[in-house]
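TL;DR need structure tokens for one chain.
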Amino acid sequence: MNALTRTAVSATLHCLTGCAVGEVLGMVISTALGWHNTATIAISVALAFLFGYALTMRPVLAAGVPLRQAIGVALAADTVSIASMEVIDNAGLLAIPGAMDAGLGDWLFWASLAGSLAIAFVLTVPVNRWMIARGKGHAVVHQHHHH
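>> reply
TL;DR here they are.
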């Protein structure tokens, strides 16, 4: 695996982490509040973006980049990646019969989420690779690692 592909895989794993945290937390909140599918997807996607951006901003802020600039870096680095992953992940969950109605204690929920996220990961790596090769996406973050 070449360096560009390794960087894309690393960036996509980073994205996957934020998306997974947001998806699970969104499901926990929506289940606790008795929300239906549309609200569940909305909160899960919003939280996926929130956690994805936060995971990117943490090392950028630690490198001494001011908050306003760190927010811009996170938006540039992660928006396309998270959006790609969320579209694929949620399409997968909607396509699997019963997945959206499965509770947190149901194996169908966890298996569907894991499968959808795995597919989203595989399909998002080329997106991140393409962006990084053009100096976009996570390439923007790497400019600030040695700030």
